[in-house]
Specification:
Structural class: mainly alpha
Mean pLDDT: 93
Number of strands: 0
Order of helices and strands: HHHHHHHHHHHH
Strand content: under 5%
Number of helices: 12
Low-confidence stretches: none
Shape: globular
Radius of gyration: 20 Å
Largest sheet: none
Distance between the termini: 26 Å
Length: 264
């Protein structure tokens, strides 16, 4: 999740004003969220229960309509990320518009992330979204200062990868130390992956599905449930089946579902 939110900050744009930003993000995030929430987290579980007798541990009745507003989970849980990204984009726009100091902006993002994401417990995945707010800021700063263009992969990648491995072997018991440790682990992991991508530059399949990542986000959870019902529990077999499936799913969704998959 730190990586995904970081990438969102990396590509953050103001679009000329708050109203334009809200309109753009409504098309790109909220419309896919509400459409796939209604279909895969409400109608599908209810139909699966009524027709096939399949029960979901998150429920299978009309209370699912408002499940995402409560503290409980809902069937297609990855959808929260679309809702969360909308909140983070709007919140960050307001902060960067009125806070001109980059250091103060970072401290505000960090403080809000700790307060709203870790101290308070807010419904509708708001706390979950804000717990990653600082990574959004980091992505924004990397783009703003063109940091990746200035970094030497040959010198920095071995160091970041070694730090990531060392941190991964640690397990602090203190709550404060654990927060710092998780943050450092996330930052070194994101940096390592970005540098690897910079070094590799292009992988055909990854580049293809990456362009339509929202389609993977909204469908992979229901597809995994289908594989489980088919008793395909081997993770490698499941991954291969899903990888091949998206070669057909993506063209289908591009052709018939562009308005609810952020393609229009």
């Amino acid at each position: 999740m730190p990586l995904y939110v970081f990438l969102s900050g990396l590509f953050f744009k103001t679009y000329g004003g708050l109203l334009q930003l809200v309109r753009k993000k409504t098309k790109k995030l909220l419309i896919p969220f509400f459409f796939f929430y209604l279909t895969t987290s409400v109608l599908l579980p209810i139909a699966a229960h009524k027709v096939f007798g399949i029960n979901f541990n998150t429920g299978q009745d009309w209370r699912l309509l408002y499940a995402f507003l409560t503290y409980s989970d809902f069937p297609n849980i990855p959808l929260w990320f679309l809702w969360g990204l909308f909140i983070l984009n709007v919140s960050f726009y307001v902060l960067q518009k009125y806070i001109k100091s980059e250091i103060l902006l970072g401290l505000c993002c960090l403080g809000l992330g700790i307060l709203l994401g870790n101290v308070l417990t807010l419904p509708a995945s708001v706390s979950r979204a804000f717990s990653y707010f600082f990574y959004f800021y980091l992505g924004y700063m990397v783009t703003r200062h063109a940091i990746m263009e200035k970094v030497s992969v040959r010198h920095v990648l071995p160091v970041s990868f070694l730090m990531f491995l060392v941190l991964g072997l640690c397990n602090p018991t203190s709550e404060v130390l654990s927060y710092v440790w998780q943050s450092m682990l996330s930052v070194t992991g994101v940096l390592t992956l970005l540098l690897l991508c910079k070094q590799i530059e292009y992988l055909p399949y990854v580049s293809y599905v990456g362009r339509y990542s929202i389609m993977l986000l909204v469908t992979h959870e229901p597809l995994i449930r289908v594989l489980s019902l088919m008793h395909i529990d081997n993770p490698y077999a499941g991954f291969l089946i899903l990888a091949v499936s998206y070669l057909f799913i993506i063209p289908f969704m591009r052709r018939f579902m562009p308005h609810v998959t952020a393609q229009k």
